[in-house]
Sequence to fold (358 residues):
Amino acid sequence: MGEEFNPSKPIYLQLVDRISWEIIKGERKTGEKLPSVREMAIQSGVNPNTVSRTYNELERMEIVETKRGQGTFVTEQKEKLVELREQLKINHIQNFIEEMKQMGFSSEDMIEGIRTYVTNEKENES
Amino acid sequence: MITFENVSKRYLRKHALSDVNVTIPEGKIIGLVGSNGSGKSTFMKMIAGLVAPSEGKVMIDQESVSRRTANKVAYLSELDAYYSFFSVKETIDFFASQFQDFDLEKANDIIAFMEVDPSQKVKHLSKGNRGRLKIALTLAREVPIILMDEPLSGLDPMVRDSIVKGLLSFIDLEKQTVIITTHEVTEIEPLLETVIAIRNGKVLALEDVETIRERDRMRIVEWLKKMYQEEA
Fold:
């Protein structure tokens, strides 16, 4: 049955996150057509009005463009996607810091932790 | 648009609905949720014109529910009510002969989409395929209001999935409103835009599901429990 959604966040925003993520990862390319509202609703088992709202939000964020009578497309303005990527980076860092704080780690602990982790990874690769 | 104005229904001394006032928005998939015996089926049957209110008025587009409004409503009953000696195809043709608004081509498309064999006798269908046939017969009517009373009940997850996909494929929310009652509410939660909570014949709330997620951070079931506790 469709996909799992977090019960404490509007689904239209969860779909915005998911599609943004797919675009950044390159699973959806610049200029590529998104599924129609109905197709997307069927694929994800979500109300079509929710999908419309998702597309409107993505359009407001200027990540997608709707061409009349043709459908919705991932934007071809590369700078918008760069912005989105930066935004997602900041969001992830925020979440990370928020959770680390809740576990009682200081900023120094976090930076030190990241540095050690990255160094270890590099050593393992070489 | 469907409106309940001071609607009550009594069966002898039992109140199935008491003083219900609610306006149901158009172009949405709406879940009608509540415990057993809360009045869900009575509510649905009143919109379909199968049960008359003891008091008050049920209206569709400002017109009291009657035989004339029946052509605006497709009602999927909880029960099976088909001729078991008919084949699937004969059942569809029979329904096409009964309802002017029945779209034969659409019915055949839905049956094909759900992979039901049209030549099978209804009595030989599995429970899942009977469920699918019922959905096809309901969705094939070109009407603004679709009522589904427990369309998923007793069906396995695969069948439920194909029914949900069929529903999403063949409804048109620009022209249609769908009201669903179900015990499997968590399963179809992403499908619902609005919920109506009903308890002991009273409508407790009509709420946007995204609002429940955002404001209350709850699933519909949890929200319903909260509504029930506040009312008790």
User: Anything to note?
Assistant: Chain B has one domain: 2-231. Residues 2-231 of chain B form a domain with the Rossmann fold fold (CATH 3.40.50.300).
